[in-house]
Fold these 2 entries.
Entry 1:
Amino acid sequence: MLNRTVLAATLSALSLVSLPVLADDASDLKKLRAEVDALRKAYESRVGELESRLKQAETKQAATPAATAAATPAAAPASADKAARQSGDTAFNPAVSLILSGTYANLQKDPEGYRIKGFVPGGEIGPGSRGFSLGESELGLSANVDRLFYGQANIALSSENEVGVEEAFIQTTSLPAGLKLKAGRYFSGIGYLNEQHAHTWDFVDAPLAYQAFLGGQFGQDGVQLKWLAPSNTFIELGAEAGRGSNFPGSDRSRNSSGAQSLFGHVGGDIGASHSWRAGLAWLRANPSAREHSDIDLAGSEVTNTFSGSSRLWVADFIWKWAPNGDARRTSFKLQGEYFRRKEVGELVYDKDGTASADRYRSQQSGAYAQAVWQFLPAWRTGYRYDWLDSGKVDYTGNSSNLANPDYKPRKHSVMVDWSPSEFSRVRLQFANDRSRENQPDRQVFLQYQMSLGAHGAHGF
C-alpha cells in the first residue's frame, strides 16, 4: 500500500509541474490528466492482482504441512528434523564414482602358462584371460572428514566376483610447511605409473618392468609422508614405511616395518607449451619365505622360497607438449622408466621335496619407453617398447638344480583409442610379447572404460 501511495503522489506532482507548460492548451492538459488517471488505475489493478496471488500461495503453503501432519502425525517430527538437517548432511556426503571396464583378448599363447623368463613371478602378471571378460571395476568414495583430514577408499570388483580393498586411507589437509601425511592402504609413490589407477594408463596392461619387479603395481598398508617445496619449480620428496606384504615383499607376521621407500620428483614448465617431470625412487623390502614357482633343470615344476633383502631403484621421466597448454585438440607425451633390482639372501629349492637351502644373489634390470600422440580432439595413438635383462643370478649350491637365466624378454605394443568425453574411452591394442623364450605371443585387445559419478582430477 505504501508503494501505491508514493506512486500516486509522484504522478500528482508531475501533473502539477506540467500545468504552467500546458496552461495555454486546455485541451492537451485535459488529455494528459486522463492518461495519468488511466495509468494510476492500471497500476492499482495490477498490484491488487499480484497481492491476491501472493495471498493464495501463502495459504496453500501453510495448508500442505498441516494436511501431511494430520495424515501421518508420527512421521511429521522426523520429516521436519530431516529437512532441518538436509543442508548440513549434504555438505559431508562423500563423492562417489564407479569405473566400469571390459576387455576382449585374442591371445596366440595360452595365458595359463605365462611366465617372464628369468624373473621370479609375483603379484598379478600376464595378459589376462582369452575372449570376453569383465575387467576390474572400481568403486570410489572420497570426502573431507573435517578441517584436518581427507578420506578416500577404492573398492576393486574383480571379474572373478571377488571384492578387494585397493586403497583406503586418510590424509592430512592442513599440516604446515608443505607437509602431507597419509595412513592406511595406498599405492606407493615410487616411479611414475605406480601411484596411478589402471584406468588412467595409456595401454591396456602394465609395462613388463612393472610386472617383473613389482608384480604389476606396488601397494601396501602403512604411512607416507610427503613434502612439497615452496618454490616455482615443482619439488616433492617422500618417505614410506609399511607392512610390505605385497611382492617383492611377503607377509612376515612381525611388528617391524616390512618395506620402506624414499622418492623425489622435480618438474616444471618450459614456455607455454611444454612441461616435464623427473624422479628417483628407492624401495627396500624384506621378504620372508616368499614363494614362487619355477622350472628346474629336469623340466619339473617346483616351488622355491626366498628370504632376505630386495632393493629396487627406479628412475622416471615424462615430457608433455600441448600448443599453448591447450590439450583439447592435439598433444604429445613421451614417457619412460628404468628399474634395477638387487636381491640377496637364502633360497630354498623345492621346499616340498628336496628342500635344499643355499645362498642366493641376483641383479636384474628393465625399462620401458612410450609415446602417445593425440592427433584429433577425441583420438590418440601410442607405441610402447618394453625390455628386461635377466642379468646375473647366482644360485651357489643350487646351481645343479636351477638354470642361470640368460634371456632378455621384449614386448612391442601399439594402441589407438577414442574418448568421446572425459568419462568414456574405447581402446584397440596390438602387442607382440616375447616374455617366454621361443614362444612369441601375438595379442589383440579391445577394451572399454567408463566413469560414472564424481571423479577427481588425475595427477600430472
Note: The longest helix spans residues 26-71.
Entry 2:
Amino acid sequence: MFLHDLAISNQVSGKGVGAKMVSHLLNVAMILKFEQILLVAVQGSSLFWEKMGFTEVTDQSISATYGDGAKMMRYLL
C-alpha cells in the first residue's frame, strides 16, 4: 500500500487525530493482508512517521519534486 497524503485541520493539531488515523490505516491494511505501507515524508514529517513505527528506506531514490529533506518510509505489516 502507498499512502499518498495524510492531512488534519490546524484546529485539531496536537490532539492525537493523526495518530488515530494512522492506527486505523494500519488495522485496515492488516485486515486486507497488505505486506507493507510506503509513503514519502515531506515538510519535516519523518519524526511523526517514526513515532508511528515507520522506518526510513535508504536503498530507494525518490523524485526531487518532493522537495529537500523528503524521505521514503516503510511500515512492515
Note: The chain has a mean pLDDT of 96.
